[in-house]
Design goal:
- Helices cover 42% and strands 16% of the residues.
- By secondary structure, the chain is α+β, with helices and mostly antiparallel strands.
- Strands 1-3-4-7-6 form a 5-stranded mixed barrel. Strands 2-5 form a two-stranded antiparallel sheet.
- Strand 6 (188-195) and strand 7 (200-205) form a beta hairpin.
- Helix 2 packs antiparallel against helix 4 and helix 4 runs antiparallel to helix 5.
- The longest helix has 31 residues, at 97-127.
- The radius of gyration is 22 Å and the shape is elongated.
- The chain starts with a helix and ends with a helix.
Length: 217
């Protein structure tokens, strides 16, 4: 255990160890419903048609199409693992200072490249299961459908829900309520509008008594 801690918090692994702790803390808050998966996502600039910040950077490296937080989590986790393995294989913990200075950056660069390659493959796979801008598809297609809340809560500031398209594909979308309404995990909600400015669906509690299908059953 002592050797593991020494490696995890030694150069170059330590650069990612602290970021990995932040990643773990972030996903704990996601599970608790305190933050959303899109916490670091930004909207596309309406005038230039380009994304800024982290979204723009990831798009330039071919890692767009999934939430920024998911991509960063993968990059950090894989980079940490690769530097840890590289440090152990090259026995950098026992290396002299000149050797550490020479080999440390090599391990760091190789680890980041490895993380980018693996993350690119994962992102390509995830894009197939996430809603995108396919020809003929429109955000308003979901308006009038029902969804199931998947975060601890959904209110005017936060919320995610699972919605099923006509072809049977399930997607996780950002949802918000209005008028102070609050929904809990597992609640069924009705999508009544799409806010193009913020990129979220507006939902309200679903009253099954108003469903023509259930009334005729």
């Amino acid at each position: 255990m002592g050797e593991f801690i020494s490696t995890a918090f030694g150069f170059p692994t330590a650069l990612f160890s602290f970021m990995l702790l932040v990643v773990f803390a972030y996903w704990i808050f996601v599970v608790l419903g305190a933050v959303g998966m899109d916490a670091l996502d930004v909207d596309v600039d309406a005038d230039t048609g380009t994304a800024g910040g982290l979204s723009g950077l990831l798009s330039a490296t071919g890692l767009s199409g999934v939430p920024v937080t998911v991509v960063l989590s993968l990059l950090i986790t894989l980079s940490w693992f690769a530097t840890l393995v590289g440090t152990v294989l090259l026995d950098l913990n026992e290396a002299s200072t000149p050797a550490l200075i020479a080999l440390g950056p090599v391990v760091l660069v190789a680890a980041v490249l490895f993380a980018w390659l693996v993350t690119s493959g994962v992102v390509m796979g995830l894009r197939r299961f996430l809603p995108g801008d396919e020809p003929g598809a429109a955000h308003t297609d979901f308006v009038g459908s029902t969804c199931v809340i998947r975060t601890g809560r959904a209110d005017e500031a936060f919320g995610q829900a699972e919605i099923t398209a006509a072809n049977g594909t399930a997607s996780i979308v950002q949802v918000r309520t209005i008028g102070g309404e609050t929904l809990s995990s597992g609640d069924t909600a009705l999508v009544f509008d799409y806010d193009a400015d913020s990129g979220v669906y507006l939902v309200t509690p679903f009253d099954r008594s108003l469903d023509p299908g259930s009334a005729s059953a």
